[in-house]
Amino acid sequence: MKLVCIECGKSISYDHFSYHCECGGLFDIVQDFHNHDAEQLKHLFNERLSERMTPYASGVWRYKELIFPELPEECIVTKHEGNTGLYTHQLIQDYIGLRQIYVKAQSENPSGSFKDNGMTVAVSHGKSLGYKKFTCTSTGNTSSSLAMYASIGNSDSYIFVPNKDISMNKVLQTIAYGAHVFSIPGTYDDGIEFLEKYSEDLGLYVCNSINPFRIEGQKSIIYEIAQYLNWNLPDWIVVPGGALSNATALGKGLHDLFTLGLIDKLPRIAIIQAEGASPFHQMIDKKMKELIPDGSPYTRASALNIGNPPSWKKAKHTLKETNGITASVSDIEILNAKAIIDRSGIGCEPASAATVAGLKKLVDQQKIDKGQTALCILTGNILKDTDALKEYHSGDNMVAIFKNTLQATSLDYKTIQNYI
pTM here? Predict the structure, then answer.
């Protein structure tokens, strides 16, 4: 394993850890897979599905040989993350109009979001280096995940949260796990800039997506999907795009699987952003070489409320490698799709629903053929933003089929019978 700069190509040993190269570029982790055999790996990963109380019961550490083989087992900080559900539902399929649709409910992770897959690796790496203080800036999911893992590892977490346009559910969850929370003026992007400047002086280990070990952990999402589908992936994988760490990790994981011969073709990637926070989509759509940051992003899907995604160059590489595309969707398209996902019994937070909304839009625009197959990654739990539920189901914009809340004037059998 080594760290390689995505800008200049300089490589350093992983034990000389840094977030940035001297040239300013982010580091990427490059693994040596030459000694691995695909069939042996499949056998090992299948055997570990029966684990219950060891680190390998985790849907991340099950794949340790592909993620962080050098890490001593005693440094692993885990809550048996991963192992999340892979579902199909006729309601979602009819809504989108595609032949076969899967949803991967990363919302079922211990802290309620996909961030756990990467955070277990980042915190474990930090622990191996002797850190006891961990930090991130966050619109919510990263903070609650970090706070949980830091507490499990008997460490402290210091969280920088924007003071507006966030979900209080996530902040309260973060506080409950014991984090030290700073409510900051500005945006997620301002928090990242602060940590890049001062984290080293403050003795803080950064767990945002600038950390390549977080990305290594998040690769496990596509590993697990491939294993559950017997190493036959659908035509399309659809992810929401905020900081773009998920798209980056997805691309890395697919590259690994294809290089190792665990899969024989690469699916195409679709990255979906909210219209009010879509600098990456705008760059791709307008065929620009560089991303132009949005200084005042806003979307009701607060986890996507990022105007200067730090992983955009890595995500752009993912699109190139997979012949991928992007789309942006309005907040009402997101919330309508969320209502469908919720009604299916699966549920998700608004940012997750951007995948289903975006897939529907791409099918309607005939950019994705109705005869193809797709998988949408749902990133956060339905309870991550209960205000969104209240606003939508008491509003006028909801899909008519879901206007089913009735006010009983009295609690007696005949009154209730009339409603049923």
Answer: 0.92
